[in-house]
Amino acid sequence: MATKNARSGRTGYRCTECGRTVTKWIGQCPDCGQWGTFEESSLRPATSSGSAGGSPTTPARPIAEVDLDTARAVPTGIGELDRVLGGGIVPGAVVLLAGEPGVGKSTLLLETAHRWAAGGAGGRSLYVTGEESAGQVRLRAERTDSLHPELYLGAESELPAVVEQVEQLRPGLLIVDSVQTVQAGDTEGTPGGVTQVRAVTSALVTLAKERGLPVLLVGHVTKEGAVAGPRSLEHLVDVVLQFEGDRHSTLRMLRGVKNRFGPADEVGCFEQEDDGIAEVPDPSGLFVNDRQSRVPGTAVTVVVEGKRPLLAEVQALVSPTQMNMPRRAVSGLDSARVSMMLAVLDKRGNIRTGDHDVYAATVGGVRVTEPAVDLPTALAVASAKLDVPLRPGTVAVGEVGLAGEIRRVNAVGRRLAEAARLGFEHALVPPDSGPAPEGIRVTEVAELRSALRALRNG
């Protein structure tokens, strides 16, 4: 029945996630399983893929003879952004930058447009805004010192107008802020809707590929943190970046979620300042307090964000309570893993916290959830309970199992090399973690009791 309606051009319902068409509205899509994704649309007949007269746009060649010069990454001028992109932005690539409101997406891309125009490698840049007026963007550019003669600014919300701007200016970089505010005139739906977002993105992808024009798109996110719009939006673009940050902290993290031209697990660090976004090429100092002071309840570890080792400090406070239900407060750590560490400390390490309030947090607003932070969390809690500080210059890395064993984690060598570079002299690591880099002494601990003995012996 659905096929018959599609051939006759009648109105039906189409799933915005997978494209399934039905004649009557239903709540759940039988193909992708999503709820509430069917929208009324015209079921147009599909064109035949085997139409006569088709000819290839370019003849196929052996892969070794394909020219690479047109696909080499061009640096944007922002080192942390280039790090996440894999050295720069590839001509013809479409990059989607998503993030919560106010995190600094527009400021980062305005700085990118300025660096691109000032660098001269890709020529002029065009910044198209659909959310603000041109005057408002100009005010931000003055505040962040991002004015340049080769940086052009357009306030457009219609897709044909954006394409015409590209035709006239011939920029080397196009930035659209944001894809949810641009409307394709020949497509049904409201701006920001699923149909409109898909149509606008598809048109911009085609424009980028035809002209070899790199395009940066700003994307909104939902309250769950996912990119707003159809799931196919992330499949259409070449690169998906997530810009993260806490509103109470100046730290911003740029994460690669998808990258067809480079690693998809790199992380760039920025700091939100009054005059714009500043790169933080060595962010470890933001997450570690003065390590010369011996304070109970603190432990330093090395986490890996993507491929980047970063020092982080875990702090714990254990205080007696008269309440029947002791309080557990966690910030920057996985609360479930902290609860597990308290149970393991009680059962395997004879560190009782059942009648104490326990507070655990990280320094600098960084969020750490990987298993390698288990050992420093346990040591920080034990140090606070025993009122015995760890020896200065010591880092701890390792996953703690329910039996109290210390398990190996990945990239121990890179973690210890980063710790040694920053002056740490001693490390507690799991057994068989490999050779230690020069400048740091390693103590292998097979179980939690061994790590606690090292704590007590100072």
Automatic annotation (TrEMBL):
GO CC annotation, single: cytosol
Superkingdom of this protein's organism: Bacteria
Q: Which Pfam families match?
A: AAA_25, ChlI, Zn_ribbon_LapB
User: Which family is this protein grouped under?
Assistant: Belongs to the RecA family. RadA subfamily.
Short motif (RadA KNRFG motif): ranges? 258-262
Question: Which Gene Ontology terms describe the biological processes this protein takes part in?
Answer: recombinational repair
Organism of origin is Actinopolyspora mortivallis
Q: What is this protein called?
A: DNA repair protein RadA
Ranges for domain RecA family profile come to: 70-221
SMART domains reported for this sequence:
AAA
The record describes the protein's role as: Plays a role in repairing double-strand DNA breaks, probably involving stabilizing or processing branched DNA or blocked replication forks. DNA-dependent ATPase involved in processing of recombination intermediates, plays a role in repairing DNA breaks. Stimulates the branch migration of RecA-mediated strand transfer reactions, allowing the 3' invading strand to extend heteroduplex DNA faster. Binds ssDNA in the presence of ADP but not other nucleotides, has ATPase activity that is stimulated by ssDNA and various branched DNA structures, but inhibited by SSB. Does not have RecA's homology-searching function.
Q: Which gene encodes it?
A: radA
